[in-house]
Design goal:
It comes from Neoroseomonas alkaliterrae. This is NitT/TauT family transport system ATP-binding protein. This protein is of the alpha/beta class. The chain contains eight helices and ten strands. Among the domains are: about 90 residues, no CATH class; about 90 residues, 3-Layer(aba) Sandwich (Rossmann fold). A hairpin with a 2-residue loop joins strand 4 and strand 5. The chain starts with 5 loop residues before the first strand and ends with a helix. The chain binds adenosine-5'-triphosphate. Adenosine-5'-triphosphate (ATP) binds next to strand 2 and helix 1.
């Protein structure tokens, strides 16, 4: 069997030195190349911390993170990232923000001068896909929060990353836009098959989009259970109204409630 594309082994993360907050402890998980996994868990259990370790933004206090056979030792260039609070650069237009990874990540950086026309067409096509046609020349502050979030998703996708790390990318969107973007993401995944890790509080989103949902314990977080999602793709929104789908969502909700209760019991005097 091929080695997993992403391998997290015995990872712990403590912020702020020995007396600091233990965010993760004994966290292990494997993700196969081209797999789409969702990570869910109680608030504050360390989901964003996990994303930071995988993308090399922080080193773990203990354990190892391996991506594509190499231990992560710094910011990872093969990853595309999108977070709940879009961090678009205010002095760049939307199109220039979306094109930013092409100026940074090889081989695109090398090829940008020669291929600028086709790169720009690709960026414009992504913006069209998420409903931002006509806003390419605007600046982030001229767009609503939800529109900025859509632009940030385009920026995460523009360099066709092999690993896509998404931390609540649809969190601030209204339900209709969110569901539209689920299908945009599904289409991109079907077309390019990147390995995706999606952190979300929305259990319906987790089940609709992923092959496997990983459930984290309360802080210090670790993976305590997983649920495979059996539905073939492309999935359509009608699926979310089916009894079997809703049963999976309820099962996940119960597991997270149990994890939260376990913590409340251990906090009791
Ligand atoms: N930079 C930091 N410095 C100190 N503590 C931090 C830092 N970032 C996160 N923490 C702490 O680590 C723990 C886990 O935080 P993290 O943001 O990873 O959780 P989360 O599961 O993503 O939370 P949420 O579901 O609320 O988004 C929390 O107790 C948080 O306060």
């Amino acid at each position: 069997m091929a080695a997993p594309f992403l391998q997290i082994d015995g990872v712990a993360m403590r912020y702020g030195g020995v007396e600091g907050t233990l965010a993760l402890s004994g966290t292990s998980l494997d993700v196969a190349e081209g797999e789409f996994v969702a990570v869910v868990g109680p608030s504050g259990c360390g989901k964003s911390t996990l994303m930071r370790l995988v993308t090399g933004l922080w080193p773990p206090t203990e354990g190892t993170v391996i991506v594509d056979g190499r231990e992560v030792a710094g910011p990872l260039s093969i990853a595309g990232m999108a977070f709940q609070n879009p961090t678009l650069l205010p002095w760049r237009s939307i199109l220039d923000n979306v094109m930013l990874p092409l100026e940074v990540v090889q081989p695109h950086r090398r090829e940008l001068r020669a291929k600028r026309g086709s790169y720009e067409r690709h960026a414009r096509a992504l913006l069209r896909l998420v409903g931002l046609e006509g806003f390419e020349a605007k600046f982030p502050w001229q767009l609503s929060g939800g529109m900025q979030q859509r632009a940030s998703l385009c920026r995460a996708l523009v360099h066709d990353p092999r690993l896509l790390m998404l931390d609540e990318p649809f969190g601030a969107l209204d339900v209709f836009t969110r569901e539209d973007l689920w299908d945009v993401l599904q289409d991109v995944w079907l077309a390019k098959k990147p390995t995706v890790v999606l952190v979300t509080h929305d259990l319906k989103e987790a089940v609709y989009l992923s092959d496997r949902v990983l459930i984290m314990s309360a802080r210090p977080g670790r993976i305590i259970a997983e649920r495979r999602v059996p539905y073939p793709r492309p999935r359509r929104l009608d699926l979310t109204y089916e009894a079997g789908f809703q049963a999976i969502v309820h099962e996940l909700r119960d597991r997270i409630s149990d994890a939260r209760r376990a913590v409340e019991a251990s906090d009791a005097p």
